[in-house]
Write a structure and sequence with these properties.
alpha/beta, 2 domains, 97 residues
Length: 97
């Protein structure tokens, strides 16, 4: 029965997988909680923020992972300037256009 259901969903472009249970949390609700589960035991993670926009994700990452090193990439020149202004005070964050 599982194989039939799985193949039906695959035909319409979906993939069904078993998720990992985190006590008190559900996977797939908050991406930063999901990432922290997989990075447990890593006190200084490295992130690449591709399409950094104005730095919204960088700021959220730093709240959840204050010791992270983050490389943020933003191709738009005006948006890149805003990104640089928003991350200026964080030494472990680098921006590139």
């Amino acid at each position: 029965m599982k194989k039939i259901i799985k193949s039906i969903f695959e035909k319409i472009g979906y993939e069904i997988r078993k998720t990992v249970f985190i006590p008190g949390e559900r996977m797939g609700i908050d991406p930063f909680n999901d990432i922290s589960y997989f990075l447990r035991g890593n006190p200084t993670p490295l992130f690449f923020d591709v399409g950094g926009n104005e730095g919204q994700t960088v700021l959220q990452m730093l709240k959840k992972f204050p010791n992270a090193t983050i490389h943020s990439f933003e191709p738009g020149s005006e948006t890149f300037q805003t990104l640089q202004n928003n991350i200026r005070s964080f030494k472990a964050v680098r921006a590139a256009s």
